[in-house]
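Protein record

Derive tokens from sequence
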Amino acid sequence: MAGKQKSTKPLIAQNRYGSAPKAVRNPPKPPRSAAPKQRNIFARALRWLFNRCVGLVWAVIWRSALLLSLFTAAGVGYYRSTLPELSALLDVRARGSVTLLDRNNEVFAWRGEQFGEAIDAQTISPHLRHAVLATEDKRFYRHFGLSPRGVLGAIRINMREGRSALSGHGGSTITQQTAKLLCLGLPFDRARWKSERAYEAECRESSLWRKVKEAVYALALESRFSKDEILTIYINRSFLGAGARGFEAAAQRYFGKSARNVNPAEAAMLAGLLVAPTRYAPTNDLQRSQNRAGVVINLMQAQALLSAEEADFARKNPAQLSQAAKANAGNYFADWVMQSGPRFLTQTTTEDVIIKTTFDRRLQNAAEQAMHQVFDSKVRPGSKAQAAIVVMSPNGAVRAMLGGRNTSVAGGFNRATQALRQTGSAFKPFVFAAALEAGYSPYDILQDSPLTLDLPGSGPWSPQNYSKEFLGPVSLNTALSQSLNIPTIRLSEEVGRDVVRNIASGFGVGEKLASGPALALGVSEATLIDMVGAYAGILNRGISITPFGLNELRLFGEDTALIGATNSAGQRVISPTAAHNLIFMMQNVMVEGTGQKAAIEGWQTAGKTGTTQSARDAWFIGFSSDYVIGVWMGYDDNTPLTEVTGGGLPAEIWKATMLRAQGDLPPSALVQTLETHSGARKPNESTDRDQSTNAVNRFLRKLFGQDLFKVLPLMP
């Protein structure tokens, strides 16, 4: 085929499929999916919410802080405006302060709260200042009134010990404690609170809101007073046990010296009281108080407030109580004086009162030693039997008093003055006093023979002697010395019960005496002090006396007494002759009668035993020319005593007390011979009345089996 052939380019591999693609520098990104887009929106929302919350919290915080600051400032300003001058905050007034002096003008007891003179933080013993700071607030001079570090530490300790955060340790600074002592400036109102104790309990309660107010008040104190002034308030108002308010009162109470002069051991003991004043009071438990003082000494040494040598010396020589504080004597007596004096000057006094008393420390020791001697040697261990003792001068001045076996108790039940007990045969001297006053002689004859009385509403009553035996005709002297019941009843009926009651009441025995014939056997109740006072009236030749313990009462700092010693002598109850003869008969109780265990060789003493039904009470009351002493034994619940009568253990306690009381005094006579009224019968003298009466009695005994029982005519 002829034709013109077209030229063609040779095929090459790269052109087989068209031209090659041009290179792309930035390839397009694939399209975004929907899920990542949603995640970005959520994250932005979270960031926005977080930022808003942070902003809100911050706004709340700074606004709250601002508001709290404003309220705190307002509270501080308010409290600061109410704060008086420093002197008014020291509170050294004597609320309820009573100091009791013995007959030698030495202090033996305190009652109420004791306030010492105002002292300054810079004038007290440096050891005391250091002890207080070491144990209560070692950073006192470095903080602004509050200690967050101390609070956090206290919370940690409380929680570690299993208590709530705010229970137990408070971490309070001295400034905060001062705020609490001041009750946040809230004054005492008698219309709102029954007592200052109730007032303080309420205003010092522990709560979160209370802590907040204390903190604000503390800041007010810091803004108003210097550190030394705050410490001065604190040391003058702190309660330190045993009624002592302030360190000056406590130093005087425990050591008999000023707070300006206490040594390191004494300072440590005083500072140690702050944590628990009553528990650690050295008058309650000296050893426990010394142990607590040892802890304070260690703190002082650790804080370089005591050298090692000083600390070691203080530990080896712990603080000791003064002689007055150590004695802790006369609490029953002190309580009695407080109750017997004018209430507004004793129990409820708002003044600092000084009372000079009749108390004799030597005689108190004598009574205590005598009681312990007999109980330790002759009473079974663990016995709950109680005893009471009263030692009195013939003029009625009470010299010593024990109201129970616990001789150190204060404010306890006083069995010498508060226990009304049946007197038993200790009442019989008043029956015989009535007879002697009526003209009877100690040697007049009474019949000790079976007796039955028909009591209206009760039927027949046949009393017995303690021995269940009858002695027949006996003298008054024998009837009293042997404490025979039947002759005493006969005598009471012959003289007249009303006469007997009048005699007993005249001497000060009881207000509600029995009306029946058992009156003669002492079924009426009386206190030991009343019975001792009545016996003092017998010793006083028949003139009644009133027991007293207060010689003088005056206000502290005053020279003029508000109350002086009163005349204890009362009215004549029986004649001197009757009293003389009764004393003579009561001497025979000691010589040949039921009180022989109480007899003191070489001494003239007189007394009477007393044992009530079933031995529920056992008495011995007697006297020398110098002292009248009464002893009672029994159980508080009226349980019968076991093998105890008035002539037994009470007589032995009486003798032991009297021996110690008499000391070096020379023996002196009571009475030597009988005295007689005109017309009174002499020993062994018989009258027609006796003969006729005995003849009638013999006839009636044969006819009716009993003696004549009627009131006989009295001799002039």
Residues 34-82 form the longest helix (49 residues). The domain at 391-549+568-700 is CATH 3.40.710.10 (Beta-lactamase).
